[in-house]
Amino acid sequence: MFDVETVKNRLASFGYEVKAGDEFALAFCIEKVRSTIKNEINWQDVPEGLEHVAVDMAAGEFLLSKKTFVPADIAGLDLDYAVKQIQTGDTNTVFATGEGSSTPEQRLTTFINYLLSYGKGEFNSFRRIRW
After folding, report:
1. CA angle at residue 15 from 13 to 20, to 5 degrees?
2. What percentage of residues in the chain have a pLDDT greater than 70?
3. pTM metric for this prediction
4. Angle at 28 between CA 130 and CA 75, to 5 degrees
C-alpha cells in the first residue's frame, strides 16, 4: 500500500533515515504525488498497479525538496551503490560509463529525476475518460 511507512522504507533503502522534523514534508510529498496521479488517470485513489511508481515519485519529491532547502541533510546518501559491471561467462556488461565525469550533485540530480519520471508511461494503462 502507498503510505508513509512504505516511502520511509524506500528512503531508508537509499540510505536516508527520516527524522521527526521530516514528517510533515514527507506527508505533503505523498499527498502531492497521490493528487497528481489521481488527476492524471481520473481515479478516486492510486491503483495497486501504480503504487510502486507512486512510492518512487514521493521519495523523489522528498529528496528534491531536501536537496533544494536542506542539502546538508542528504549529504550522507551513498550514490555509488549502483552496479558497475556484470560478467557472466564470456559476456561482460559495464553500466557506469562516464562516472568519473559526474559530480556527486549531478548523480543525485539524475537519480532524483529518475525517481520523479520513472513509470509515468504506465499511467496510460490506468487512464479513464473524463466527461
Report:
1. 100
2. 81
3. 0.81
4. 130
